[in-house]
Structures are given as C-alpha cells and as structure tokens.
Amino acid sequence: MRISSRRGFTLIELLVVIAIIAVLIALLLPAVQAAREAARRAQCVNNLKQISLSLHNYHSATNSYPLGASLAPYNGSTATTDWSNWSAHAQLLAYLEGGTIYNACNFSVAPEWANNYGYLANSTATNSKINSFGCPSDPNANKQSLSGTYSPLGSNNSYMGSQGTTTVGYPEATPNIANAQQSTGIFAYQHSYDIASVTDGTSNTVAFAEMIADDQVGGFEMIPGKGTGGTNTLKGVYFYDVNAAGLATVMMDIQTCNAKYQHDGGGREGGGYRWSCGAMGYTMFNTVIPPNGGGVAKWGACRNNCCPQTRHADYVNASSYHPGGVNVSLADGSVRFIKNTIAMKTWWALGTRGLGEVISADSY
Asked: What is the extent of the structural domain holding 185?
C-alpha cells in the first residue's frame, strides 16, 4: 500500500513569506496614506471654495464684506468689548447653507464670554459643528473645545480671514493708534471693506487661509499651531502695516518669540478655538510670518502683552497639516496652495488689498 504524506511549510519558509508580506505592506502603506491625504486636501480646497462663494454672495447682498469682528454687548447691558464678538464666519452662515444655525444666533449680544448672558443665549448655535469650517487633515477640526475661565464651549475652526500685514491683536490694546480698527487685509475688527477697496486685484489678495485647530487650553506643548508670547518687548506689533516696522524688526521679534517658546517648553492655547468668535487666532490671522512659520518661527502665534496664546495674538500664522504649505483662497474665489518657503515680502504683498505691490505670477 502506498502511503502519501502531506508536507507543510518549514519555519524558514514561513518567515520568508511573512517578510515578503511585510515588505509589500511597507511599500503600499505610504501610497495609501498619500491617496488619503490627497482626498482630504481636495475636501479642504472645496471647503475654502464654499467659504469664498459665500463671501461673494454676502457682498452681492450687502455691498461689503462682513466685519472681521462685530461689536455687541456681552452681558445683556450696554457694555461692549473687542474680545468676544461675532466672527465673519457667523455672518456668512446664511450664505453657506447654514441658515438654521444663523437664525439661532442672537447678533445683538456677543457670544464668547463664559457664563454670561450672550453665551447662554447663543450656546445652541456656537456649539454646533460646521462641516465647511473643518479641514479633514486636521484631527482637531470641528471638535468641541473645552471650556476655560473666559472660554466657554464651542466648535473649532480651521479657516481664518486675513488682516493682511496688520499686527493689531485687538483694538483695545492699541488705544493711541487712530486706525487700530482697520487693517490692510480683507477683514478687521469692527470695520468692513468692499471689493472696490481691493485695488491690488482680487486675484492677488488673500481672503482666507488655513490654521491648525486646537481643542483645548491645556498646558505648554511642543506641537504645531500652539501660541506663545507674553514678552512685552516686541517691536513690530501694533502696526496698521508691518512694513512701517520693517523686515529686520519682524525677524528680531521672531527670535524673541522663539526664545520664549523654547523657555516655556512649547506654547499654550492654539488657534481656531471656535468659529463663532471674531478674534485674531480664532477666525483671523495676518500674512506676516510665512505659512507654518516659514522655517523661521517655531510657534503658531505670538502675543506681546499677555498670555502665551493664539487668541488676540499680534502675530498669527497660517498653518496646516498638509505637507509643505497651506491652502488659501484669494478674494476672487480661487484657491491656491502657498508653500512654506514663500518669500516673506511676497507673503506680505499677497495679504494687502490696496498698497500697490506688484506680484509676479511665478513668485509663489
């Protein structure tokens, strides 16, 4: 009788097969991750296009762009503050398929200050997540932020309106500057502009850009987007146009903020803390430091006169988790990818709406 035997894999053969599979996975994984990032980036571009379209529809209806930050009482009385007012994002909701949330906003009171009349009256709206305000590449986008002493719950935001080359964190900090409530960009505190003021050309002026969102006020961390500051020694801040301070001054400020960031072990509150509040670092930024710090700044924002945080900071940088740069929408509604390596002066020129700079098409 013939006895047949069944031969299995040897241990060496099994290890070889496992090694081959591991190599194939290692080769395939970067391609899968790249494909996923391409899809996320495409969605991010689409979000910016939708926001830009709503901006144009708003202008068609009102003959102006929205205020970067409104001015309303925050506690049910007549007292007002620059700190806690409605953002341009909130004003655009009605043109962004967000009519229900827009109708839930009480624009006669400010939404920000914790546990006050304005926040309680608007918490239903401000706690709502707006899909168009969240970049899918950002793990903290559209998360609900934690509450703090002056920071109630809200939903995070990935996209900021441009103040151009203005380094005014909030007008109350600069009472001696006549134009503190204006900016060289499309948006400003308690001030609005129209398309006629964009004399540099809508295709040469940044309207919105990305910023890494932060879901909490936490301790100091060395992670992207965190804000630093509290030096009270910065020389390039409180300017309507940072060109008046000059490039050398800005570079010295960057080193000062870098040193503070390193000394503290990182930054504290990051950007995009809530979409409803009109404030630098929440829904506005400036085109002073190149995207993601441009290889020179280690932080996402730097505030001169107070805490190490992005909120009301004087330097607030565009930032993202996309490799190499950020998506921005221009005032004509187009979306471009701006590299971290863009020349600082070119970035300044792209941010201003009417200072007459000439930008060549191949400079960014």
From this structure: 30-131+142-351
